[in-house]
Specification:
The protein is of the alpha/beta class and about 250 residues long. It has one domain: Rossmann fold (3-Layer(aba) Sandwich), CATH 3.40.50.1820. It has 9 helices and 8 strands. An 8-stranded mixed β-sheet has the order 1-2-4-3-5-6-7-8, with helices on both faces. Helix 7 links the parallel strand 7 and strand 8. It is globular. The two termini are about 35 Å apart.
């Protein structure tokens, strides 16, 4: 991805385009590159795309939680003086966005969730990540997608390196356990701003029933399905995903 990473105080982020601001939030095992298509294409459609690098590995162990990442997000938004923005979160990033939205939705125009945790997530396929077993990591990375070919070697190598870094693995496990404990079912009715839910019909990590439950519990939500798609629609079907985001936002503005 060609986008420049900006460093400002304690924040590292991408800031591309001008117009309607959308803040992208990556997942636990995700990275900035997961939103490559959004960063490259959505600015052409009239959006300012802002994506902070979430400090999953930098937080103190006892503060490694989605709530702390939400606090970090709030500080980031204050630092950049952002207002009237949309949050778009995948997986853990969706969970972080939900926590922020419950507290600060008066600052926002809308929320976009895709493969979000917060209700249920089958982390790494329900298995403890086996360090040193490349084929295990390859298989689990492929399970993120409907089409296993989307899990290319650079992506598998990145995940393999992460889970074989002891310090990173400890933080990943702590974050995953914290996210499971922080179930948001009772809080979702508090969300009243427009919410767009984009889900892969073949998501094994957060199955389709999770999307239906989000839709039922968030009264202001609209649910969009993508066929032959797993846990990361913005990677597996980027054009469809970007079109849904664009059409939904512009229809709100009519």
């Amino acid at each position: 991805m060609k986008a420049k990473i900006i460093s400002q105080n304690k924040f590292k982020y991408i800031d591309e385009g001008s117009g309607i601001p959308i803040i992208l939030l990556h997942g636990l095992m995700g990275s900035l590159s997961n939103f490559k298509s959004c960063v490259e294409e959505l600015p052409k459609k009239g959006f300012r795309i802002i994506m902070p690098l979430l400090p999953i590995y930098e937080l103190p162990l006892l503060k490694t939680s989605a709530t702390e990442l939400s606090n970090f997000l709030n500080q980031f938004i204050i630092e950049l003086k952002l207002e009237n923005f949309y949050l778009l979160g995948n997986s853990l990033g969706g969970h972080v966005g939900l926590i922020y939205t419950v507290k600060f939705q008066n600052k926002m125009k809308g929320l976009i969730l895709t493969g979000s945790s917060g209700l249920y997530e089958n982390t790494l396929g329900g298995s403890f990540p086996k360090r040193g077993d490349y084929n295990f990591i390859k298989n689990k990375t492929e399970e993120v997608f409907y089409n296993p070919k989307c899990a290319n070697k650079p992506l598998i190598d990145e995940v393999f390196e992460t889970v074989n870094n002891r310090k990173k693995l400890i933080k990943i496990l702590a974050m995953a356990k914290s996210a499971i404990r922080h179930n948001m079912r009772k809080d979702l009715s508090k969300i009243v701003i427009p919410t767009c839910i984009i889900w892969g019909k073949n998501d094994k990590i957060t199955p389709p029933e999770v999307a239906n439950e989000f839709h039922d519990l968030i009264s202001s939500s609209k649910l969009f399905w993508i066929n032959k798609c797993g846990h990361a629609p913005m990677m597996e079907h980027p054009n469809i995903f970007n079109n849904i985001v664009t059409d939904w936002v512009y229809n709100l503005k009519k």
